[in-house]
Model the fold of this input.
Amino acid sequence: MSWASFHMVEVMSSPKLLQKRIGYLAATQSFQQDTDVLMLTTNLIKKDLASSTSLEIGIALNGLSQIVTPDLARDLCQDLVAMLNHSRPYIRKKVVLVLYKVFLKYPEALRLSFSRVKEKLDDADPSVVSAVVSVVCELSRKNPKNYLSLAPQLYTLLTTSSNNWMLIKIIKLFASLTPLEPRLIKKLLPPLTSLIQTTPAMSLLYECIYTVITGGFLEAAGEASHSLAAACTNKLRKFLEDPDQNSSHPKLVAEHKDIILECIDDDDLSIRLRALDLVIGMVNRKNIMDIVKRLVSHLTLPSTTTYNANEPPTVVDPAYRNDIVNRILFICSQNQYQNITNFEWYINVLVGITYSSGVNVGEALTSQLMDVSVRVKSVRSFSVKQMYRLLSDKEFLDTAKKRDSNVEVLSAAAWICGEYCSFLDNVLSTLECLLAPSVEKLMPKVQAIYVHSIMKIYAYWITELTHHWDEEVQNEFLKVTQLMRDKMNMFSRSVDLEVQERTLFTLILDNVATSDPVIRVPLILQGLPELFFVYELNPVAPKAQKKVPVPEGLDLEAWIYEPLPDLIADHDSDNASTETLFESMHKPKSKKKSKKNKAHNEEDEEEKIKRRAACMEARRNDPYYISMKNPEQTKSKLVEQEDVDLIPIVELSLEGFDLPVKDKKRRGKKKSSRALTPPPAPVYAEEEMPENAADSGSEEETKNKKSLLYSKKNSQDIFATDDNALNSVDLSTPLGDNEDFPQMKAYSSPEETRRLEEARFIAARREQRAALKDKKKDQVSAKKSSKQSTKKSSKSSDKKKKSKKTDKKDKTDKTPVKEDEGESRTAQPQQLLDTEYVEVVNIEHTSEAEEPKATLKFSIKNKSTELILPRVHMNFIQSFDMKLQQCEHESDMASVSETFELQTSEQVNCMGLFEIQSDARKGLCLRGDLQYDVENVSALHQYPFEIVFPVSLFIKEDDTVDPAQFGNLLAVHGDTFEHHDIIVVEIPRTSDVPTDQSLLHILEAVVSISRLQVVEMVPGAASLYGHTVQNVKVVGLLKCVLSGEEAAHIATFTIELKCTDDAFLQGLVHELSSAELLAALS
Done:
């Protein structure tokens, strides 16, 4: 369902509760660990967890517990830990349980949040405490040492709680802690003894008795051990008589076979399955028939007329029925059928299971029928009769197309009848069953065995006819052969290649049917029986081949027949180029070769060359073969590319490996002190043994091995995790200063990623262009330096005279506007948050002089005069624009990354240094949230805030230019200021205020807002310049426009700006067009 993953996320984000629940349910059913849209659910789940509706929070927690991944666990663990103080116990309980899944995926969260989870053991709600105990009990399974510190709190719960299920988990937890701390035994002995004597709950009673017996409490009880043991045995006696289903615990009733057999028919599925587990271990030769009969009765479906709706549904459950059959086959075949004394009974059981509907175990039954028939000679006759009954059953053959049919058993039936056809009562009737038209419905692998069995049975029938061959027998033989040839055509039409290949037997039938009518056995059939019945098929032990020694003179690596040269010609020619190359490089040249070997090798090489030449000639004339254009050139290239001397050769050593020791001394076989009765009949008949064969040690080896155990195949969940990392977490050491919850990483949208890539490309291009221009500028300045030096002295006197005149003339008109030298580039204080308990103010944010960095200072105040804020923390979302850094210079002010504890009405100041990683633009901002806890208030307090950075903040203060440099900049580098915009400002004009004074007024407002520098001021206009720390340059012209009738009442000013960066220009225009400029003018 990967095609619907994104749509599920959309439904999960729906504001409607019903749709949201459906979306989370679909995600839990279809999402896997590698589902790509899981990364999109982080903010969605965070939003749902912060919802004011408890139902939405519960839905999000349920979904998160099923789809949690390591990334989700890392990003959401801090939110979940903060929710442990939620006002609703329903939410706190779910959060505790979800944290266990988070610990499995992100083990580091266990150390960070264990103290908060530990506090919930003292929660006022018992459901929350029970959830914490369950989580701790699961965590302590592999590493109980981490949870010894919880012993006092758990002991208090053990002595005060009345929740039986929670007490069971606490007792299990103490059972794992007592081996680590033996002193706990004496402490736990009184409450456990009290529970054994007083509790009416059978499950809790069993857990107490089990802990006392296995935990060493009887030894530690001292004089009271006898009375404690007596109390335990008296309580154990009640388990067998109690009608409560939970009391039928297998470990307590293992020796009571009658009760276990009654539990097999119990209505409760859990008791029935547990009883089946016990039955496998208690099977022996005396009770195997009764137990198998009980199990087979579970496979009989109730009739439709007597069916009771109240009967347990597990009888018709296919999974349960398959499990029953597998258990029957296991207990009968274990240890090479040692518990079976009557194999005819076992054949009947297997045939009976074959007819059971609703169960598909045909392959297992086929294997058992063939194995028993081959191993046990005495049962072959009975087995052949039962298999013939299966082959002749037309109703069973009609079920071949059903899903739950065991039609695969017919392959075993056909094979047994063909292999041991001497036990058939009617050969022709068996052939008729094997050639029935309905056989065409069977699977191809069954049809292939049918064809092979037909050949063997036909060969056996011919052998029987040869002893009394006459004309009547020959006529019957020809009639049957013709009929077989006609019916074998259905196999030749099969789509399976194996079936078609085996139907080549019809060639023999065609030859026999067209032979001469002389009364004699056809010659082609005289040797047919020898193909199948010369040697008898006998059982072979799995390790029998190891016992047979290799005959002398037998070389298993040598060719039985030398391959013909023509068969390997193609192989030699395909590898001709590489073979000659590597033969010359890899084979060591031995100096001590005999002349005979050299002559032999030369002859072989000549033969190979001739064969290759003939093959290449044949391929050259073959129109369907694509040959190389220049083989010699290709070969030379291969030699150049492959330098064998450069191939590293690693010497492998067997040191450090534990090699298996083949020759081990067997231990002597111990004689049993008890006299065992021999089996009634030997299973295996004596067979011929090869010469010098050693005795099989399988009996001794099987006795030394442990008994086999029946187990189902375990299917691993797609979200299953390895808990080794969780078990290695050490909770005994305190948290370090650098251990904290990880900050959430922000994911960029495709548009933002594309914009950042474009910005990087533009910045790189500008740097290259600026470097080229600076280089040219240096060359030009070097040439002009000699010319300007001669003219400098002559112009100096003229400049002094002109300056005196201009000073007197423009003394009142031109007053340059300059900022105070001590004023830093800071923004006005900004109130970020004002909540019920906290007020946060951004005191100032300044930028560095030479680097794109900004320093922010905050003021956090506790507004409450009665409540303490134990935990106040500011989180800043990391993005591609901003990055929090460590302050390079020392300061008395705290860092924004610290966590503060504010007393009543207390105020604290903090600061942080942020690196600007992107270009200055409109909308550049820093986002974060403030999280704080309030004393005696369990609600989650989390508020987002946003700090906008004006682009003018990054304009340098000390980068000033004079009018001459300004003119030269526009003349030489004017083409770089390719982005321009115009701002029009209209202000009311009074008759008593001159135009130049209005110009000064608006110029002061523009300079204070944009931080641009005034280069030169003339009547009615002023030029502006700015240079940022990111090497962005901006020039401007402020002028007054007086035209029209409104000029007497309204003064119109235009600010024309040109910049080297469009994004910076848009941000600067936005600042100058804002209401802040009009407020400054007013």
Notes: The chain is about 50% helix and 10% strand.
